[in-house]
């Protein structure tokens, strides 16, 4: 008899959930909201600023072509290569800037930790899929564009359980 | 003509009653490994685990990268428990390089490690549920795992491979209003966890299948060198967090979970009860954490370790993980040896499966808290 009681109790605890909201994110329509504008780093104190580690953003006016990001990526993903750019900056005599291959990048963010000139940060943009491998290679010009994102859904918790709003 | 066989090899004799089954190597749970099982009817005569399909050479790779560049690839063996596998690495490198860790960073590390432990156990529980044919127990933990992934995403910026712990502290400070958000989601999760009891653990169908199967006695558990939840389910009170407290675990209020039975049911229940303790640790750490201060000690670029060797271990979701690091005055370690709980628990699988029914194999196999990718490293 105790077995039947146990089975009824198990079924009952499942049946209760028919009246509770679904805990599912309907992804392409709903997108999760993240803290801040992406992972950043303060080289003065050597501590990062919390944020999602998505696609990078490169500030051309700060980049000196020092290659530290590329050196940091050696042995991790080898995704960063330095390429020539058709720009003239006083602080970037060699006119080289990082180009990132997102087919290789593991989004660890150690290149951001390595940059001492506030030039390379990460953004909230994580939708990078493409039909060709070559489209995954982002040139310095593409990395300079600020992504347009609309992420506004958060986990809400009330008496009827957790849900995505 | 008789041919000489190489040492260690033998020709198997064929018995008409005994059949050999290959379970795997494609995902008999998660990760690739093979069990060569010999059955007599429905009963297992012998079992020979055959790991090594996902060997990646992590230890060799670590010898060619400096102490910071090692972080992203050393967490790859267990991406669900990435903070815990990096924890002993950070502790041993700190000892090697003589780095002090700020007080606030120690608390943040403990919170990250406990959140990650919950993520791992929920994933493990989801697979345990589907192994038992209980699809509700697959859906619930896989869904509730999102609460913790969301918190770690806010902390570290990545959903699974966090690369958050570094020698000298953590990568970044907590975001604003993290404390309230963490407290709210952890308290909701504790309520949710109590519902698992009726639907899974007190379910007579689960009890009938797992109680009394694959019994590992207390002496055998010690003799075979098992660790983690397998050891505690056999009645040995050994938890590295209690016995050799690292960082701030000695200031925090929690118990180690011990059960005496040593059967499959106890092995499935110990990690579940540990999640309650993890929630307690997180709430306690949030209360006792210093509200401001540094979280990372600045390192020199390319730091070098002296002529030294260290061994530090911690308690992960699967047992004790230890790192043995040797350095020889270079920016790269000379040798990194990772000792993982999964591999040490694998050794008792042939003992437990002997004489069991084939139908009980999944319960015994997954109850050992074995993660093939971690064991192969």
How is this structure best described in words?
The complex is a heterodimer of chains A (165) and B (377). The two termini of chain A are 42 Å apart. Chain A is built from four helices and nine strands. With 165 residues, chain A is of the alpha+beta class. The mean pLDDT of chain A is 86. Chain A has helices spanning 2-15, 68-73, 110-114, 140-143, and strands at 40-42, 47-49, 56-58, 80-84, 96-101, 120-122, 137-138, 156-158, 161-163. Chain B has 377 residues and is of the alpha+beta class. Chain B starts with 17 loop residues before the first strand and ends with a helix. Chain B has two domains: 18-50, no CATH class; 58-376, Cytochrome-c3 Hydrogenase, chain B. The longest helix of chain B has 29 residues, at 103-131. In chain B, a hairpin with a 2-residue loop joins strand 4 and strand 5. At the A-B interface, helix 1 and strand 2 of A face helix 2, helix 5, helix 6 and helix 7 of B.
What tags apply to this protein structure?
heterodimer, A: 165 residues, alpha+beta, Alpha-Beta Plaits, three-stranded antiparallel beta sheet, two-stranded antiparallel sheet, 19% strand, elongated, B: 377 residues, Cytochrome-c3 Hydrogenase, chain B, 2 domains, 15 helices, 13% strand, globular
Which geometry of chain B do the CA atoms define? Answer: globular
Mean pLDDT of chain A: 86
Distance between the termini of chain B: 43 Å
**How much helix, percentage-wise, in residues of chain A?**
10-25%
Q: Separation of termini of chain A?
A: 42 Å
Beta-strand share of residues of chain B: 5-15%
| CATH homologous superfamily designation of the largest domain in chain B | Cytochrome-c3 Hydrogenase, chain B
CATH topology of the largest domain in chain B: Cytochrome-c3 Hydrogenase, chain B
Give me the side-by-side strand order of the main sheet of chain B.
Answer: 1-2-3
Write the layout of secondary structure elements.
The complex is a heterodimer of chains A (165) and B (377).
Chain A: H1 2-15, E1 40-42, E2 47-49, E3 56-58, H2 68-73, E4 80-84, E5 96-101, H3 110-114, E6 120-122, E7 137-138, H4 140-143, E8 156-158, E9 161-163
Antiparallel strand pairs in A: 1-2, 3-6, 4-5, 5-7, 8-9
Chain B: E1 18-23, E2 34-40, E3 43-50, H1 58-61, H2 70-74, H3 82-97, H4 103-131, H5 135-156, E4 165-166, E5 169-170, H6 178-201, H7 204-210, H8 218-223, H9 229-233, H10 240-243, H11 264-288, E6 307-316, E7 319-328, E8 335-339, H12 341-346, H13 349-353, H14 361-367, H15 372-376
Antiparallel strand pairs in B: 1-2, 2-3, 4-5, 6-7, 7-8
Helix pairs in contact in B: 3-4, 4-5, 4-11, 4-14, 5-6, 6-11
């Amino acid at each position: 008899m105790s077995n039947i009681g146990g089975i009824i109790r198990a079924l009952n605890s499942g049946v209760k959930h028919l009246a509770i909201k679904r805990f599912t994110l309907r992804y392409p329509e709903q997108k999760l909201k993240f803290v801040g504008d992406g992972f950043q780093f303060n080289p003065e104190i050597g501590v990062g600023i919390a944020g999602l580690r998505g696609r990078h953003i490169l500030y051309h006016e700060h980049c000196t072509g020092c290659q530290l990001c590329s050196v940091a990526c050696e042995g991790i993903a080898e995704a960063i290569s330095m390429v020539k750019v058709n720009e003239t900056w006083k602080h970037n005599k060699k006119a080289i800037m990082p180009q990132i291959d997102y087919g290789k990048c593991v989004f660890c963010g150690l290149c951001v930790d390595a940059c001492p000139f506030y030039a390379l940060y990460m953004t909230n943009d994580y939708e990078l899929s493409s039909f060709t491998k070559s489209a995954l290679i982002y040139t310095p010009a593409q990395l300079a564009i600020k992504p347009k994102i609309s992420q506004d859904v958060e986990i809400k918790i009330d008496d009827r359980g957790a849900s995505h709003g | 003509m008789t041919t000489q066989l190489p040492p260690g090899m033998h020709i198997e004799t064929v018995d008409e009653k005994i059949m050999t089954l290959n379970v795997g190597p494609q995902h008999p749970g998660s990760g690739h490994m093979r069990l060569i099982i010999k059955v007599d009817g429905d009963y297992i005569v012998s079992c020979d685990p055959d790991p090594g399909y996902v060997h990646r050479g992590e230890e060799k790779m670590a010898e060619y990268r400096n102490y910071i560049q090692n972080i992203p690839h050393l967490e790859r063996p267990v991406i669900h428990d990435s903070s815990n596998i990096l924890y002993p690495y950070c502790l041993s490198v700190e000892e090697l390089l003589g780095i002090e860790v700020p007080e606030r960073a120690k608390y943040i590390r403990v919170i990250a490690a406990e959140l990650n432990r919950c993520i791992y156990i929920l994933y493990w529980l989801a697979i345990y549920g589907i192994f038992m044919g209980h699809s509700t127990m697959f859906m619930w933990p896989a869904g509730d795992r999102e609460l913790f992934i969301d918190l770690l995403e806010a902390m570290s910026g990545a959903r699974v491979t966090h690369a958050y712990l570094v020698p000298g502290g953590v990568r970044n400070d907590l975001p604003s209003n993290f404390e309230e958000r963490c407290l709210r989601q952890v308290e909701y999760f504790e309520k949710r966890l109590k519902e698992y009891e009726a639907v899974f653990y007190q379910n007579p169908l689960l009890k009938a299948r797992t109680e009394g199967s694959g019994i590992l006695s207390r002496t055998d558990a010690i003799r075979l060198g098992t660790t983690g939840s397998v050891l505690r389910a056999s009645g040995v009170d050994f938890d590295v967090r209690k016995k050799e407290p690292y960082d701030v675990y000695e200031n925090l209020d929690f118990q180690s979970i011990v059960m005496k039975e040593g059967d499959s049911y106890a092995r499935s229940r110990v990690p579940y009860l540990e999640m309650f303790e993890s929630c307690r640790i997180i709430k306690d750490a949030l209360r006792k954490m210093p509200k401001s201060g540094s979280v990372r000690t600045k390192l020199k670029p390319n730091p070098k370790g002296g002529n030294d060797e260290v061994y530090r271990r911690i308690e992960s979701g699967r047992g004790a993980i230890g790192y043995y690091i040797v350095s020889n005055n270079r920016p790269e370690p000379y040798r990194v040896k990772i000792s993982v709980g999964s591999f040490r628990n694998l050794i008792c699988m042939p003992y437990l499966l002997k004489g069991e029914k084939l139908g009980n194999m999944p319960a015994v196999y997954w109850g050992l808290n074995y993660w093939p990718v971690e064991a192969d490293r």
